[in-house]
Amino acid sequence: IFSFFSSNLSGSITTPDVKLNLGGEFIKESTATTFLRQRGYGWLLEVEDDDPEDNKPLLEELDIDLKDIYYKIRCVLMPMPSLGFNRQVVRDNPDFWGPLAVVLFFSMISLYGQFKVVSWIITIWIFGSLTIFLLARVLGGEVAYGQVLGVIGYSLLPLIVIAPVLLVVGSFEVVSTLIKLFGVFWAAYSAASLLVGEEFKTKKPLLIYPIFLLYIYFLSLYTGV
User: Mind telling me which residue stretches traverse the membrane in this protein (predicted)?
Assistant: First the structure.
């Protein structure tokens, strides 16, 4: 009798064999997953793949090339052609973050000298570069505003270099004046040699002179004279 009932009552309960292909391997879906998919809510289960573009380093994301900035700094600080630097890269491949860092650093130095002119320095950098750009285009120069902005910003580096020297020799008026003139000529020469090309021909002084005056004004914001 027991064998009769056991033979008639034997069996198994099967579950729906619903499988999901994930990455080449099949796994069984749960009842909740199947329920959602059958009613058109399968999109709730979708998982977006990681975008490799979202995993970029911060410097690359902001388009900051430290090696390029360092090379441009050396080109500005050492403007002599005999040194073999490709100085035209400062003009032909302009960037924003390098000049901005130089201008902000110059502003910090000026602020340390008890002259609260940070906003003035940034304003003069932007609008002074715009003036040089407009003058260059009027004179027939093929230059973009971004190029002028980068060159003028980077060329503040000589004034940053002479700043600690002025703190030491500030009590010697003659020496201090000579160092200031040297710094302004250094900065103006670095900028003018990059911006004033052969296309200006006999009109070079018309562009060199305002560049020179611009750096005199930058220096006056630092020294107060």
Answer: 96-113, 119-139, 151-172, 178-197, 206-224
